[in-house]
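Hey team,

Filing this mostly as a record. A colleague (T.K.) asked me to run one chain through the structure pipeline before their review meeting, and I want the input and output archived in the tracker in case anyone asks later how it was produced. No errors, nothing strange. Just documentation.

Input sequence:
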Amino acid sequence: MPVTIAEELLLLAHRGADGRPLIGSTELDAGIAGALLAELALTGRIDLGDKTITARRPAVPGDAGTDPELDTVLAQIATQSRPRKPEWWVRKLHSAERRKRLLRRLAARGVLDEERVKVLGLFPVTRYPERDPELGAAVRERVWYVLGGADPDERTAVLIGVLRACRLDRRVFPGADRKRVKEIAEGDWASTAVARTIASINTAVIAGAIAASTAATAAGAS
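Output structure:
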């Protein structure tokens, strides 16, 4: 099964040595949601026309390259009573359980380890350090190649855009040219459809992270 853009995001979002996340779960979960929507758009399974998302091509059992997580999201979109904005979908898909499923999936493939540790010797958490660094290194190399001036492919451009939207780009690629990151994330190089996809998803990730953070703060204050 091919690795999804969301899984590539997760690999970059965790330190390889100890599996600690580089950003908060609120931003990361919004980024995962955006990456899933962007991948569905790039593969022609959803449409981002007129600032809303609609399903175009449902998954057919046995299709090459189908992914259970993507198929689940597509089914949710297809069964909505009316088209919704990308921001609405990022909030809808914002999920710690989805993040954990994708991390466990990477662990099942042998890419990550799954370890239970205690923070401050008291609070149990699960960490996902790298077991096989090959995939993560390949993703970093591909992104660095584009940030260094190479023409981006659509998937790498989406990944860079999501990294920027959830404020992960500076942590993973601190030496990258900020203007280059912005140029790729804004999609000036791309076709109209791809540029619209990147712009819509990036705006949705930022809005989704802010909404989730606000909701969490309100819940904590009540």
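Quick notes for T.K.: The domain at 5-216 is CATH 1.10.3630.10 (yeast vps74-n-term truncation variant fold). The two ends are 43 Å apart (CA to CA).
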